Fold this protein.
Amino acid sequence: MENDLINGPENNIKVVKTDDGAKDGQNKCPKCGATDISLNVNNGKLRCNYCRHEFEQEKIGGMETNIENLQGEVMGSGAADIIADTNEVVTLKCSCCGAEVVIDTSQSTQARCHWCRNTLSINQQIPNGAIPDVVLPFSLKKEEAKNLIQSFVGKRKFFAHPQFVKEFTTDNIMGVYFPYMVVDVNGHAYFKGQGEHEVRRYTRGSNENKKTYYDADLYEVGRDFDITIEGLTVETNSDKLKNDKQKTNNIINSIMPFDIENSVKYNANYLKGYSSEKRDTNVDQLRPLVDAQTKDIARFAANESLKQYDRGVKWQVENLDVKGKQWKTAYLPVWLYSYQEKKGGNNSLLHYVAVNARTKETMGSVPIHMPKLFGMSALVELAGFIAMLLFSDFKYSWLFLFVGFIYFGVMYSKYRNQGARHYHETETKKNVFNLRKQDNFIRHETGLSNSMMDGANNRKVSGTQKSKLLDL
């Protein structure tokens, strides 16, 4: 396999030709030679639709699989920079009958020869983001996805907009391969700061003047460890990377993670019968987001050894030295339902319900009939007011005044899921080793008024604000 060295912005990058050996044209069945090949969702294998022979696609070679050995920067050739003026119209010569067939890679990577009906595919990477390094096949049938979406929406029909309820149907869901960047990291983390452990909790004063105070032990804390991060996954379509509330883009992000380890070398036959999007961002554009999320993962990995500091840890030094980093592009499978809600004039809100076609994770946004939600919340608020009057002797009876607002917030969140996201800091596969701890007692503190340590940042997440990290 041929590896190339190119000059990156920070250091040399080794580019692995992940399409090595791939040929454009006919993908033939190894048994009968037919080109009518598609995915068998039941087992993830490719199946010849002529002789029914099934076969597995090979894994990509040349990339590091033991992340502990990863040094420098490695990039799959599918992750190379997109050339903006690359011609998306490609002409293939049919090796069966000699006819020339045109394929528009902005729309598809497969076409049939109009003379002999053999299927022609583009498998070699062209610098326009159309061909990734790997693909993760669909393993969830459309009927199963329809049932999951039907169940998700069915639980939210009470406050759903009547027009949506009338028009909702799962018959129009689509299987889509979305483009992602998959990153592996071999690094060394060093954290230094202070942590607090609660040793006593008590109250002072009486009645309305009663207040809770805390005593705690303050420690000097240090954590030094090696860490490997495998399969950190970020979107590479700029539209999905934007925090656009008008398109509920967070829904697509929230159904991660995928079982990236089961990805195979790209073959256009996996896309037959499904839609796909092209990557339109480069590695350098994604670096700030990947670096922020990598640091989040290391920070949360350190928390596993900080459980004694129940009041939190305030890190004053946070270093993550990257010894090796590996990038590859992937097509990952999603079943997608979309609905455009008209908001008056030319305004609209695009809602999604998405299903991870590997894990069945389902998340979505459902249009809300706001008058009905406001009316029900008002009734709940009225019930809370009556409860406050009935239980006036209860010290905290005034809390009943908030039940209507709480009810509104809970229902709105259940239907819109604006806060749904992929928890990269805890859901990404990682391994910590060679851990060295420093826990030195400093002093005993008394009469603290806050339940958590001032300035505690060991659970801070910075890699979620994509629009602030990316310049797209």
